[in-house]
Amino acid sequence: MSTRLICLPYAGAGAGVYRHWKALSTPDLTAVPIQLPGREEEFGLPFHPTFEAAAQSTADRILAAVGTAPFVVFGHSFGAALAHGATRELVARGGPRPRHLIVSGTVSPRHRRPLPISATDDEQAVADLCAATGQTLDGDLALLRDPDLRSLLLPALRADVSLMTPDPAREPEPLPLPLTAIRGTDDALVPTAPWLDWAAYTSEPFHSLDLPGGHMYLADDWDTMWKTVRGLL
After folding, report:
1. What is the Cα–Cα distance from 102 to 60, expressed in whole angstroms?
2. The overall pTM is greater than 0.90
């Protein structure tokens, strides 16, 4: 049976960012992006009010997407935090649970902080985003050049960023499954020590992997990142 690779998007994005991986899917590994409310085909639905609500809702969506198939959970940045939260929820429910959790581009839960994004000025919010992540308005961010599109896209970004407060549990609750943490070597948002602290969040094997690039290293080469994930599994 094909393994489902559950893919959770980064802040402000929808499931469509993983269209590259859907096209690369094979009979043994199938990318299954999970949509979040308030974007793309769910535009207009209310955003998650709290991180715990987001984790619970995402866990429900994951179970609906995988059925009885084996699965792995992957998330990048905000999506990585949500991947961990949803996996913790699945474990707390007694399963089914993923065979592996892959967190990309984020520090461990007790070290996370919201990005300093302007809550009122759209142009400043875009500038804040670029400064924090080291990105320019190219690729997926090119849409933010247009004022009308910017006004449509920024509410989701602000909603996601607002949820990135430190884990209320504070102390790690090790998960009974392997965990891999990945980051871009030039990612200023993910310092080494808070990133490697993910080791405290599993009672099974932990692996860390540095890849070339900044905060959005995976979007620089989706094909290579897909091969990397396949190699991990």
Report:
1. 19
2. yes
